[in-house]
Specification:
By secondary structure, the protein is an alpha/beta fold. It is built from seven helices and ten strands. The strands form two sheets. The chain has a six-stranded mixed beta sheet. A four-stranded antiparallel beta sheet has the order 2-1-4-5, with helices on one face. Helix 6 links the parallel strand 7 and strand 8. The radius of gyration is 17 Å and the shape is globular.
């Protein structure tokens, strides 16, 4: 398990807004091995979400490259990026982005249906995943009727449902109590053990960060390797 899954080199991101520009990432180098569990910590505004968006091809770097299994993801056409996101990548957004018109179950099943699975199979698999995140009693609720932590767990279930090779998770335990956060950690560990899934977890939860294989610290748009925090 030493092959590099995701590599980025010299990543810069500058946001331009009229005459105002703000350099957020200032040369990020990072390598994630297959099956690795990596935490990224750092103060608010240091650029963690910005980095995760570039790693998931949700936004483009101003300079630098991101490689997934040796291929430059920002050189792919939109439909190839979309297929990759659907089939290989799980993305847990900091602010969930659940579809408000759909139930928890439908939100979780969506990536499976997009990938072509039958409704019956997708429903069964999504129910199982919602059970694993402790939401078996909430499958038919729409997001507006769920608590913040429940929405977060639906978003986690949705990101993991397609058995991705890589999960990019932005504050997956941000709204959770210690017990729920521990069960999310156990879920990441079990998927990692079952499927060899690699995780890049952005978090302010130092208890979670220290349980992962490696911790990187983001300081002012630059990553600094750290053993623990
Ligand atoms: N679309 C944007 N346009 C302009 N500036 C942006 C944009 N998105 C983010 N920024 C700025 O980039 C900086 C880094 O934001 P980012 O969301 O990456 O921080 P973060 O490390 O994830 O913080 P937090 O821990 O609070 O989530 C912030 O100062 C933010 O204002
Ligand atoms: Mg953030």
């Amino acid at each position: 398990m030493s092959e590099e899954l995701l590599v980025c080199k010299g990543l810069f991101k500058t946001y331009e807004d009229g005459s105002f520009s703000s350099q957020v990432l200032k040369g990020v180098d990072l390598s994630v091995k297959q099956g690795e569990l990596l935490a990224i910590v750092g103060s608010s505004g240091s650029g963690k979400s910005t980095l995760l968006h570039l790693l998931g091809a949700l936004d483009k770097p101003s300079q630098g490259d991101v490689y997934y299994q040796g291929q430059n993801i920002h050189h792919w056409k939109d439909n190839k990026q979309a297929k990759w996101r659907n089939q290989q990548l799980g993305f847990i957004y900091q602010f969930h982005h659940l579809l408000s018109e759909f139930s928890a179950l439908e939100n979780v099943a969506m990536p499976l249906l997009i990938a072509g699975m039958s409704i019956k199979e997708a429903t069964q698999k999504s129910q199982d995943m919602l059970h694993r995140v402790g939401l078996e009693a909430r499958v038919n609720y729409r997001p507006a009727k769920l608590s913040g932590g429940e929405r977060q767990r639906v978003a986690i279930a949705r990101a993991l449902i397609n058995d991705p090779q890589l999960v990019l998770a932005d504050e997956p335990t941000g709204n959770l109590d210690a017990l729920s956060a521990e069960s999310v950690y156990q879920l990441l560990r079990s998927l990692n053990a079952e499927l060899g899934t690699a995780f890049v977890v952005v978090t302010h939860d130092l208890a979670l960060a220290n349980k992962l294989d490696r911790v990187e610290l983001m300081v002012n748009g630059i990553l600094q390797g750290k053993r623990d925090v």
